[in-house]
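User: Here's a chain of 655 residues. Predict its fold as tokens.
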Amino acid sequence: MITALRHFLVDSWLGRVIAFVVFVSFVVLGGTFFGMGGGMAGLNGDTVVQIGTRKITPVEFQKAIQRHVAFAMQQNGGSADFLKTPQGRQEVGHAALRNLILVHEGELAGERNGLNPSDETIREVVFSMPDFKDPSGKFDPRKMDNVLKASNLSHQDMILETRRMLYSAATMFAFGQTVQPPAQEVDLMVNYIGHGQVVDMVRLPFSLSEVSTQPTDEQLKRYYQNHLWQFRQPEYRHARIVVMTAGSVAKTIQISDEDLRASYNLKMQDPAEAARYNSPELRSIEVLAVADEATAKKLASAWQGGKTWAVLQKQYPKAIPATLNDARLTDLPDAALGKVAFATPAGKVSAPAQTAAGWSVVHVLSIKPATHVSFESLKDSIREDLANERAASVLKDRQRAFEEAVAGSTTLDKVPADIGAFPLEGSLDAHGNLPGGEPAPLPGDAALRQALIEQVFSQKKDEPPHVVTEPDGSAFAVLVDDITPSKQNSYETAQQAVKDAWTADAQKHATEQRATALFQQAKKEGLRSALAGQKEDAMLQKDEHFSRLQLRHDVPELILKAALELKPGQTAMLQAGDGYWLVNVTGSYEESPTLMQAIRQRMVAQMTAAYRNDLQEALSMSYTRAAPPRHFNAALFNDINDRVLSMISGRLGQQ
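Assistant: Prediction complete.
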């Protein structure tokens, strides 16, 4: 991360200024937020934290949060999933504040060491920024104004950030630039990552074994007594629930036709968005290219006469064949070839066409017409998208109405649906299952469903409902109106379930014995030999490759760990899921030299960045000891962080 930031710092002067505040997002200031002595004394609501005589204001903190979110989204490929959890939101705020603290600490360190960039120095730096120069290389003030306006920066912001950048470049970023990781450490890491294991393995499911004998009634009764907890009817609670989520609120939001049309026009004006819905004409073609026109004419005549592409390749072995499936006009490498390919009807063979490489004949196999999605066809999906985008802020606005409706309805039957709240009721157990065993159709994501279940089983029967609000803004109220206590099923009632459980245990035990026997044999002579001639041989997976570069997800994590960590020749027997696994490492392999070189280069870059980061962190900690942050206003921090991130989440349409 530090390496990427450093490149940005070096490659773009404007980037140095605009993104400066987020350069040190991942430098950890241990104790920064827990060692701020002095409480709130002497501060008011316009200071988040104080460093020396400097104060971090709410406006400054708000801008830092916005910049940090923008940078984090860029690093995550445009995703803002980190904003969906309370922990993620807190980390965003803490990282943004750490950025600001380091910025101020760097300035103070520079001042303490006699660094004071003059106005002339700052002016020279600004005038030298390539982003502000015209095509002739001269500074263009109008271009600077346009760039600053697009970046939401004023001239004063520009001067301030340039000054801070100069302080930081002198007091922090230059520190540790010459450090390099030890070659032995690089070799160790490259060898660890660049070598994989070759594995034979077999999965033996519990159901593999058959139980030939039937249990006696006495065996079943003994099994029942020893496993009473398996045959107990759980407690069921009947509850009335009213839920309001961003999704339910979105269904009540009205979107005007003007807004729908404006959104459609924006999509069609954006090339990336338009490409999602519209596509040009596509053609699948066969091509034969030859060196001269005479040969091309003979070839075209034969092709038009009914000879196939395969036959013609044999007849004209020097012809260069090519095929393109669903190709755009722009996909064809030669303009003349594209012109004839898109002028020939489907199923027809073209006349010879002269191209940059010689002469070509084209057979058009199929044509897919161009498509253009109309406003009417997208209208409903646009309405849904816009409603979802606005739902987060509307959800917050309707919280008060929801609370008042719940307070005025002890039975939850008077909560109006037009605010986005919807009712449901039914019986469920503490695992969220219906009496029949299937999951209850609770709304929302996993966190909301779990919160609903916990509320149902923590709330007393007939206790007046109250609103519970989740971190994402979703809210619900619960009324528990009936409880069916848990009870032990009698042996007679549970006899079939007891028999099924006994049989499953017997199958598992038989499979375990079989797997153990094969394991003991595999330890002596390898898994292949142990399974040779056995019924399990058909299930053996041979020469499977496991690498730390590309972790496999088709096997349980326990099996993956064994495949990577066992030594060649070793065999392991493991239980994972509903079966036993036998894993035998037969050898190892090394990735290709090209890939190994790429791994080495990446490791050197990552380890170098890590060493530099450690050095810079140590330096930054020394700055905080010289001027420790103090008077941290936690309430103001949380208020600003919540408001800014809620606004951003609403704009992104997160629910």
